[in-house]
Each structure stands twice: as C-alpha cells, then as structure tokens.
C-alpha cells in the first residue's frame, strides 16, 4: 500500500506530467490544426486569427498559451496550499491523508522544482 508521502509525491508528479504534456490548445495552434467550420463561432473566429499568424508568431502564441496554463496549475496549488495551511483543509487519496509540506516547502514550490527536473529531497 502506498504511504502518504508516496501519494503526495505522485499527486505533484501527476501535475508535472500534465504540465510537460503541454496544452492541447497550444498544440493545435502550433500544428495549425484548426477547429472545423461547424465549431462554435468563437472557435471559428480563433481559426482566422491563427491562420493570419506567421510561424514565428504562432510559436510565440504557443508559449503564451502554455505559460497561462502553467500559471493556472501554479495558482491552483497556491490556493490549495493556503487552504491547507490556513484553514485546515486536507487532501485525502483512497482514505490516506496527504502530508502537509512534507519537505518544508509549499506544494507549488514542489511542483515548480519537479517541473525543473529536480529530484525529490528524499531521493537526492
């Protein structure tokens, strides 16, 4: 059975994997894989903007989209961490409560460090 620490590390690493897979919208923009004309009007409007961009501008847009997505993951972890440390909220997986700041750092810090390729402190 997984220990609480292993569950915590898996939780953070799952978010790292999500970040590294990249944003699906950014991927569509990069590959110029546009939405069908039968899509919602807002998506068809986005197609026109994407089509008008140079390859270099599309790549800049891809980086902006990915940064926005990464910021959302980070900000969610900041919010979760604040709720956990200030309001005693707890994360529970399969009946096991995840530890709070097991390495003396916030969840969002652990996520950023893992995104950067750092090892877990107990695995160095």
Q: Radius of gyration, Cα only, in angstroms?
A: 19 Å
Number of domains: 1
Mean pLDDT: 93
Please give the order of strands in the largest beta sheet: 1-2
In terms of DSSP E residues, the strand content is under 5%
Structure commentary:
The protein is mainly α and 124 residues long. It has one domain. The protein has a two-stranded antiparallel ribbon with strand order 1-2. Helix 2 runs antiparallel to helix 4 and helix 4 packs antiparallel against helix 5. The radius of gyration is 19 Å and the shape is elongated. The chain starts with a helix and ends in a 9-residue tail after the last helix. The model has no long low-confidence stretch (mean pLDDT 93).
List key phrases describing it.
2 strands; 124 residues; 5 helices
Task: Walk me through the topology.
Elements: H1 4-21, H2 24-31, H3 41-52, H4 55-87, E1 92-93, E2 96-97, H5 107-115
Antiparallel strand pairs: 1-2
Helix pairs in contact: 1-5, 2-4, 4-5
């Amino acid at each position: 059975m997984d220990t609480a620490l292993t569950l915590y590390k898996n939780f953070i690493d799952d978010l790292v994997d999500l970040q590294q897979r990249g944003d699906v919208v950014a991927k569509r923009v990069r590959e110029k894989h546009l939405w069908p004309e039968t899509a919602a009007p807002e998506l068809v409007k986005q197609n026109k903007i994407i089509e008008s961009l140079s390859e270099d501008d599309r790549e800049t847009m891809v980086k902006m989209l990915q940064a926005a997505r990464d910021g959302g993951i980070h900000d969610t972890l900041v919010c979760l961490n604040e709720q956990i440390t200030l309001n005693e909220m707890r994360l529970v997986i399969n009946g096991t409560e995840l530890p709070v700041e097991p390495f003396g750092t916030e969840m969002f810090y652990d996520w950023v460090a893992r995104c950067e390729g750092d090892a877990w402190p107990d695995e160095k």
